[in-house]
Amino acid sequence: MNLILSSDRMRRIATGIAFFSLFFIAGCSPQHRDTEFTTSPAYVIGSYTNFEVVDGDTFRIKTFSRGVRFLCIDTEEVPRGREAAKELARLRATWPAPYWKKLGKGRFPIKMPSPFGYETAEWAKTWFADVDSIRLERDSPDNVYGYFGRWLAYVFARKNGKWLNYNIECVRLGYSPYSMKYGFSERFHEQFLQAQDEARRAGRGIWNPAVQHYPQYEERLAWWTLRGDAIREYLALRKERRDLFFIGRDGEYERLALASRDTVCAFGVLGQLPDHGTIRECTMSHKKDVVVRLQFNETADVAFLQQFEQLYVYARGVVFLDGKNIVLRLPGPKAITQHPCP
Q1: CA dist., res. 213 & res. 207, Å (int)
Q2: Least confident window among 21-30, 61-70, 129-138, 300-309
Q3: How far apart are CA 23 and CA 36, in angstroms?
Q4: At residue 321, does pLDDT exceed 70?
Q5: Whole-angstrom Cα distance, residue 93 to residue 241?
Q6: Who wins on pLDDT, 252 or 17?
Q7: Do residues 326 and 293 make contact, with C-beta atoms less than 8 angstroms apart?
Q8: How many helices (H) and strands (E) does the chain have?
Q9: Full DSSP string of 315-329
Q10: Do 141 and 249 form a contact (C-beta atoms < 8 A)?
Q11: Each residue of 165-179: pLDDT tens digit?
Q12: d(CA 12, CA 152)
């Protein structure tokens, strides 16, 4: 198979993308628009008054059929359910032992309810208490929906006569690190770095050892930075390469399906692997319950693949459709690399 797609197939792919874009713009985009912009209207999703703070990084808007996930922040989880108060009391009495118990032999920092997650959610509700209108803005046109199908947005709120970016303020006040897990902010990277540096120097929130927050924030940042660097490299490269597909970004799964039986280079996060042994298949996650299956023509040693686990990688292979599923058939595990496919 040729690595560069044929002109006929490229026309079909372009037609598919155009159809998806028209459908998205016509059917999914909110209609209400703010008349006062601090940035280009192209970034604005809309302005809303009927919103509810769920926790430190999630909103519900009554006119939306899906939630809103805040870009570039990742606040700690909140105990939920009928036993939430009892669970919170238990966590406060024993923290951080519950974290280390749940982590076990896991190879990556985890998410779970924490005392500081509850405090963050309460702070967020207080922060928005005097806000009667918010404006949602996107970071880029191809990163609209997240893994769970929620809108990805920066949340701007008018406080004391000034529009503030809540996402950046959350980092500045120590309620979240600058999350680069799904890429650096294309619009506010330097502002996030400055806000995080200010919070760390002041020992606020997650940077205060006396607060009952997650351990392992240094490990999280090192892991997320590797992922952010990989995405930045990919975004620079894709302008020159027609055979690249960003698994996880809107429209890319549909575009990949149109490349059936072509040799391509898929870029995405290598999914969770077994602790040991050999495998013939692993995955790249696209959205919740939607993956690209990576099948090897030969048995792969898990120990070799674990160096790439939960990181953004490139996988070069041939696209096949298996019902509604997409399979990328690779000659072997060495077709997976952290460097762009040749």
Answers
A1: 9
A2: 21-30
A3: 27
A4: yes
A5: 54
A6: 252
A7: yes
A8: 9, 14
A9: EEEEEEEETTEEEEE
A10: no
A11: 999 999 999 999 999
A12: 29
Six-digit token string for 298: 């030969």
C-alpha to C-alpha distances, 272 to 31, 82, 112, 281, 307, nearest whole angstrom: 39, 31, 18, 11, 11
User: Which 8-state DSSP code applies to residue 211?
Assistant: S
Q: Which tokens belong to 138?
A: 């996107």
Alpha helices, H only, the chain: 7-27, 84-94, 97-103, 115-127, 166-172, 189-202, 217-237, 252-257, 302-305
Mean pLDDT, the chain, integer: 88
φ and ψ at residue 150, rounded to 5 degrees: -85, 155
Q: What is the residue-wise DSSP string for 262-293?
A: SEEEEEEEB----SSSEEEEEEEEEETTEEEE
Q: What is the DSSP letter of 76?
A: P
Q: Indicate the burial class of 306 (C-beta count within 10 angstroms; 0-12, 13-18, 19 or more).
A: middle
pLDDT of residue 10 exceeding 50, the answer is: no
| Residue 63: per-residue pLDDT | 85
Whole-angstrom CA distances from 117 to 122, 142, 202, 310 are 9, 30, 20, 24
Which tokens is 253 given?
């799964």
213 is written with which tokens? 């927050």
Cα(150)–Cα(68) distance, rounded to whole angstroms? Answer: 5
Is the alpha carbon torsion for 77, 68, 194, 165 positive or negative? negative
Mean pLDDT of 270-277: 94
CA distance 106 to 109: 8
Token pair 């006396």 in the structure block, residue? 210
Q: What phi and psi values does residue 2 have, to the nearest 5 degrees?
A: -80, 140
Q: What is the percent of the chain with per-residue pLDDT over 70, rounded to a whole number?
A: 89
- Taking 80 as the threshold, does the pLDDT of residue 15 lie above it? no
Residue 263's pLDDT is 96
Q: Which domains does the chain have, with CATH numbers?
A: 32-224 (2.40.50.90), 238-337 (2.40.50.140)
Report which of 335, 261, 323 is spatially closest to residue 295, judged by C-alpha positions: 335
Describe the chain by its helix, strand, coil percentages, rounded to 5: 35, 25, 40
